[in-house]
Amino acid sequence: MDFKQILAKLSASFQKIWSWLKPYWNRFRKWRRHVWKKYHVNKIILLTALVAILGFSMYLFYVAKSTNVSTLKSGLEQVTTVYDKDGDEAGTLSKYGQKGTFVTIDQVSQHIKDAVISTEDKRFYEHKGFDVRGIARAAVRMVINRNTSGGGGSTITQQLAKNAYLTLDQTFDRKARELFLAIEIEKQYSKDEILEMYLNNAYFANGVWGVEDASHKYFGKSAADVTIDEAAVIAGMLKGPGIYNPIDHLDNAKDRRDTVLDLMVTNGKLDEATAGQLKSEELYVRDDFYHVDDSYTFPYYFDDVINEAEHKAGIKDEDLVSKGYKIYTTLDQNYQKAMNTSFENDSLFPPNAEDGEKVQGASIAINPTTGGVMAVVGGRGDYTPRGLNRATNSTVSLSPGSTLKPLAVYTPALEAGYEPNDMLKDEPLSFYDVQNYTRTYSGQAPMYQALAQSLNAPAVWLLNEIGLDRGYKKVEKFGISLNEKDRYYGLALGGLTKGTNPLKMASAYSVFANQGERIEPYYITKIVDASGTVVYENKPKSVRVTTPEVAEEMTSMMQGVFSSGTGVDAQPYGYTMAGKTGTTESVNVDDASKDQWIIGYTPDVVIATWVGFDESSETHYLTGGSGSNLATLFRDESQRILAASPGTPFSVADASQENQTTESEEDFRQKLGEFGNNVKENAGKLGGKLKEGAEVLKDSLSDLLGGLRERIGQ
């Protein structure tokens, strides 16, 4: 059967179906016309459409009115600036902002103004923000092409609104928003002000924003000195800077220049003879643009400021860096410079791996009484813009090791009634396989000593005594996220499923320095927009973790870590700190470690520092413990930071020193008592001897005197 026969059979089948369906269809059409007429359906559809249009217009009107266009100019003129805790300028975010050198309209060549207006919006000085004829042309193009590509309907004011507030999506909704915003901008600013903002906010390829920097980038001169043909090149780039800039596409730039010159002639800004002469001339490029932005002073800190502004204040990062905000933070520039200095000194770190990979590190300093982050370094080596910050990134999972002992064991133990002098078992345990770092046991040890020396067996034993659930819940109370798999005795040693990071650990230890209260860490205190309005103000959140008494007892015990315990080599000279060291074992190499920690604090600052490899392996591991390996870096870092701190002393004494003093006094009293008894006993014996000697002496003197009398008598 050929194809024609198949079609004939299909046609016959459809004819039969239609013959059967036609009476029903005609009946339905009569009924529909009757209902349509009876219930005025046409009017209902028309009314619905009008209501929809009215509603959409009201929505766009609201969007336009709710957008603060009054800050547009000041936002474009100003650079977003970061201020420290004292209100002093610390740097800017211009590195990421769409900012060039801002110039006023009278500093721009008239040739540039004429070329831009002739090319982009020849009725610029006549319309009120939108051009009806331009919109009509765009509408015809949309009908013909069945899409909104091609543009052509946007005025300079609309383009400014798009660049400042909207996305580049070619959608009807965006175009409508653009139009309403343009009307609002026209109400707020003069035509010259609008043109000034547009020229300063336009992109000209090769990382250049604004006509001033573009003039230097492509012609080696100021925007005020640009010639007619050069102005035509600059105006021509607005259509597509990536394909019409003369550095990357010289021929395209010349062709586009000629088109702009023709448009200037059409618009009455240039005569044909001059345009023809300029078209015949060669185009020369001279680049004297040099812009090194070193105002992004503290990269890791500023990165986190941008992230916090986006997540907490709801300000998009592209708006934050471009719209002239003032961001007030908790940054301490002295602390940050001190931390940077230590991390830039390679001699303070363990040696590189065999393949040359650097040992990584991260550190953070926070104010325990406010929760404010005062300094942060997220890694060593080359900084990656907006890259990984090992100190704060939520994706970083580092095993805390023994730094978790104060949180999981000793704090809940004190809350349960234990005291720093209580003796803890230091011996192998039947319910959990645990060894001390030295592989030796002493039978028992006082709590303060077990903490200072980071003994593993007493910590696990004590966790069992107080109850695993109590320790688990207390760690969560300190702000450390746990997994149900972490509910085991290894919790006492910092064996976590997902790990943590220096920010969370510093925040947890701030509890001890802040009378048992933890304040959620933050960077930003407030954000002010270009008009001076406070658009965000931080309200720190706090939680009571333990009592002030327990916090002080923990501080008393943890001072021993630096005075006589595992952190003695990390003790900054001339300063008293409390805290804890921590080391996690490598699973790839025996007697090697993966992570090393030292967390130290005073009443003024908490410093949490970590070193290790991003990926531990048979060739990427650390030797020794944190108390010796990381000690050099931490001592240097903390000594520099504490030198700039207020120097507030602890209100409690070092438990280990206090107990040593007590033991020494008791020994002295015992020895003094023994000495007194010996003196008393020997004094008795001596008294008897002296009495006997006195009687002998008395008899001798009597005999002598008697002899003398006899001689005198003779």
TrEMBL record:
One GO CC annotation: outer membrane-bounded periplasmic space
Reactions the enzyme catalyzes: Preferential cleavage: (Ac)2-L-Lys-D-Ala-|-D-Ala. Also transpeptidation of peptidyl-alanyl moieties that are N-acyl substituents of D-alanine; [GlcNAc-(1->4)-Mur2Ac(oyl-L-Ala-gamma-D-Glu-L-Lys-D-Ala-D-Ala)](n)-di-trans,octa-cis-undecaprenyl diphosphate + beta-D-GlcNAc-(1->4)-Mur2Ac(oyl-L-Ala-gamma-D-Glu-L-Lys-D-Ala-D-Ala)-di-trans,octa-cis-undecaprenyl diphosphate = [GlcNAc-(1->4)-Mur2Ac(oyl-L-Ala-gamma-D-Glu-L-Lys-D-Ala-D-Ala)](n+1)-di-trans,octa-cis-undecaprenyl diphosphate + di-trans,octa-cis-undecaprenyl diphosphate + H(+)
Membrane spanning residue stretches: 44-64
Domain Penicillin-binding protein transpeptidase: 362-612
Record bears the keyword Cell division: no
Pfam families tied to this protein: Transgly (PF00912), Transpeptidase (PF00905)
Keywords assigned: Carboxypeptidase, Cell membrane, Cell shape, Cell wall biogenesis/degradation, Glycosyltransferase, Hydrolase, Membrane, Multifunctional enzyme, Peptidoglycan synthesis, Protease, Transferase, Transmembrane, Transmembrane helix
GO BP: any one term: proteolysis
One function term, GO molecular function aspect: serine-type D-Ala-D-Ala carboxypeptidase activity
Record InterPro entries: Beta-lactam/transpept-like, Glyco_trans_51, Glycosyltr_51/Transpeptidase, Lysozyme-like_dom_sf, PBP_transglycosylase, PCN-bd_Tpept
Domain of life: Bacteria
Domain Glycosyl transferase family as annotated: residue spans: 91-264
PANTHER family to which the protein is assigned, alphabetical: BINDING PROTEIN TRANSPEPTIDASE, PUTATIVE-RELATED (PTHR32282), PENICILLIN-BINDING PROTEIN 2A (PTHR32282:SF32)
NCBIfam families documented for this protein: PBP_1a_fam
Similarity annotation: In the C-terminal section; belongs to the transpeptidase family. In the N-terminal section; belongs to the glycosyltransferase 51 family.
Protein's name in the database: Penicillin-binding protein
Organism encoding this protein: Vagococcus acidifermentans
